[in-house]
Amino acid sequence: GASVIDSSAYRLRADGVDGDSISSGLTFLIVGSPGANNQDSPTIISPLGGADSIFSYRLGGCCGLRYENGFKTVYLSYGFEAIASLELADTVMMRILQWFGVPVGIEEHVLSQPVSGVFLVSPNPFTNLTRISFGNVQRAQGIELKIFDATGRLVKQWDYSTIGKSDCIPWDGRDNSGRKLPSGVYFLKLEAGDYSATEKLLLIR
């Protein structure tokens, strides 16, 4: 658990704990773009009952902890969406998932033939809705969009019959059956004829 020390601390930078499996070597701002830039009063906390500190503010005070005793919990005293680096946000999420024991085995490939045209996902990270734009992608041989979870399982798919002439597809973080998917890293794959591209998505509930 955690106790609140200061609920309106003005702290802007978080540092990891050396040797910690989640946070070691990490440091990031929680203000500015491309983060949400919405942290008006980050909180200082203190670990209780066997919890371990995993992040602390540069100016002092714990801002993240983990706890394990038959179950696992990670608690951050600031909004995850505020991390002002998409790459570092991905790293934090991947390490948390690995600590939870969630497989993160999907392989990422460097593409030898990029898609010809625009391929943009925004916002990313997202909470309720993101938009997948592909305005100039060549469609002569059809187009497919697929979303996989971190284990490589297909969770959502659009084909040419559902995409039609649209150049922007909204995704609300639900699977093919309409169920809300949990927070985590997902991978979007676009295929158009002989071309393909992938994009990492970060869903935050």
TrEMBL record:
Lineage, please?
Bacteria, Bacteria division WOR-3
Chain ranges of the FlgD/Vpr Ig-like domain: 139-192
| Entry-linked Gene3D superfamilies | 2.60.40.4070
Q: Which InterPro entries match?
A: FlgD/Vpr_Ig-like, Secre_tail
Q: Where do the coiled-coil regions begin and end?
A: none
Name by which UniProt lists this protein: FlgD/Vpr Ig-like domain-containing protein
- One Pfam family name from the record? FlgD_ig
Query: What domain of life?
Result: Bacteria
